[in-house]
Amino acid sequence: MKPNYQFEKRQRELEKKKKKALKTLKKGGTTEPAADVPGTAAPDKSEPTG
Asked: Could you tell me which of 10, 2, 6, 20 has the C-alpha nearest to residue 41?
């Protein structure tokens, strides 16, 4: 089975975006709506899927 590099790259990009938004919020700035940063949409890689 081939690894899905595009999926992995997209997950890394979403993590970076989420961290950047959280950092901005901590500094007191405003960010775009939370819908842009789906925190629960990403599957958890620690649990095996079967």
From this structure: 10
Taking only the tens place, the pLDDT of each residue in 32-42 is: 555 555 555 55
Non-local (6+) Cβ contacts of 38 within 8 A are: 14
| Tokens coding 29 | 């700035």
At 35, the amino acid letter reads A
Distance between CA atoms of residues 45 and 19, nearest Å: 18
Position 16, amino acid:
K
d(CA 23, CA 10): 20
Instruction: Read off the DSSP letter of residue 28.
Output: T
Indicate the pTM of the whole model: 0.49
